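User: I'm putting together a teaching handout on how multi-component assemblies are represented. Below are the sequence lines for each component of a complex, exactly as they appear in our records. Could you produce the 3D structure of the whole assembly as structure tokens, so the students can see both representations side by side? Please keep the chain order the same as the input.
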Amino acid sequence: MRITEAIIVLLYLLFMIGIGLYFYRRARSSSSDYYTAGSNINTFVGAFAIAAAVASSSSLMGAVGSGVTLGLPYFFAYAFGAIGILPFAMFLISGQVRRAGVKTMPDFFDQRFGRSVQILSAIIVVLAMTFYMVPQLTASGLIGSYVLGIDYIWAVIILGLGFTIYAALGGMWAITYTDLFQGAIMLLGVMVLAMFILFDHSGIFTLLNDALAVDPNFGDVTQPWMAYFGLFIAFLWFGIISPSVVMRNFASRDAKTARRSSMWGTLIYLLLFLSGMVVAMAGASLGIADQLENADMIFVSVIEHYLPPIVGGIMLAGLLASIMSSADAMLLAVSAGVAYDIYKKNINKDASERLITLLSLIVMLVASVAGILVAINPPQLIAIMVGWVGGFLLSSFGIPFVLGIWWKRANKQGAFAGMLGGAVVFLILVSLQLLPTNAEPIIAAPVSLILTVGVSLMTAPPSREIQDQVDRYHTHIEAEAKAKAAVTQPEGYGYDTDR
Amino acid sequence: MTQRSKFKDPGFILAIVVLLYSAFVWIWWPHETYVAGVALTAWLMLAGIILWFILAVVYVFWIEHVEKSVKEETERRDMHENN
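Assistant: Of course. Below is the structure of the complete assembly, with chains in the same order as your input.
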């Protein structure tokens, strides 16, 4: 066991659980508080929270690990898509979805397309977000076993249950405020690490030359073009199709705050990736990629090589922060999918707020256990697993979501066909392994597009009421009061009949 | 309700910019040209991530300008109707 690092990491975990306990009472008071922190988060907190939600274990450990193994262009393909997440979501959906006044993604599908599309999207959210726990748990297991000197499996179980506890207890309040600390620790940690590395190598160009001297292929494109392109589109669309990111958008106080949070969040994420680039170069210069049991451990090796134990402990806490801040948002999306989108809206409309938040808490624990069971024997590299989740979400509801906002003619039948068809084609391509890894959405997303547009045009257009609603998404008039009222009274703006 | 063309929406226009730059990189894909030992394609992607942040800043200020003008226009019309 690494005593200094272990003490810092354990103190950090206790602190996060303390925040969960602190917000427990406030979060249980209403589902609005639980899922969207009462829509009351300011720009500063929101920027760190949304950056922390986007930056998962994959952005640090995964991107660096795959960058060292597959070359610097692969790292940049990852960053090229990932840093576009927040701006692209702002351009295409954020303002419109806020004006819709919904609080979860399936809620939007209900409002725009009706109950059947909402249920299908909720099932997809639950499946994808539960699987998304796996790379996060894998990363926490790798770090935990390294720091605490315990078996990987025990590390997955202990840390997995740790972040489930505070997320389950405190809902979005705890998640947002823990994310403020986690985002700050993550950013400071990786920037300090980058500075140590640059100082040690006397600058970025020397560092790059050192990396190329050890690994002459480090600057090469080593994979088929499709592998890079598939990863890029899966990530570029991630802010649009990831329920955990979209839900952050609703937690902001108003539209202006949401936009500015996303803008500063983009800068934080950019700084994180530029520092990650330095770490990847340092990892390549160490020349140890072939000796490691798991390529994703390169990040930890760089920490161990360049930082003294106490700073290394803080950086490892930062890595855990990146994992926890994303995993908790995923847990919240899963629990909202089951407790609110499926149970409250379809099974028991009269369920009390306390029952819904209690059910959410139970769902989080179940999803966490499911994720832990798969993470005990993870199927792939972290970056590849995250690429699968992004690709699956893009292939299933990326197209119906964007067309639902921008194209009045899109209807329920088209959205349902596009969602189901894209999801099925993606899963078939992944299981058959016919394409380069992460290239599946290159085929599956166009299938979803063709089905959504084709079936919509072959069936009756949506009602005038729905078409007017689509126009309202684009008015640029912020009905904040209406949106807030709708959030606290969600059944008030839902549609009771399937369209 | 104030109706604006979706094609003039800042988000729509900036999304097109993102797609155009992305198309430029992915279609050209200069993976056999090297700059400082790294494929040019990687440097183009690095330029792209800086561009994404610049576009985010442009969007925030542009949309605030649009919202302000829409609000003023709505207030002016309401006042005119009341009179």
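A couple of points students might notice: Residues 480-499 of chain A have pLDDT under 50 and may be disordered. Chain A touches chain B through 47 residues (CB under 8 Å).
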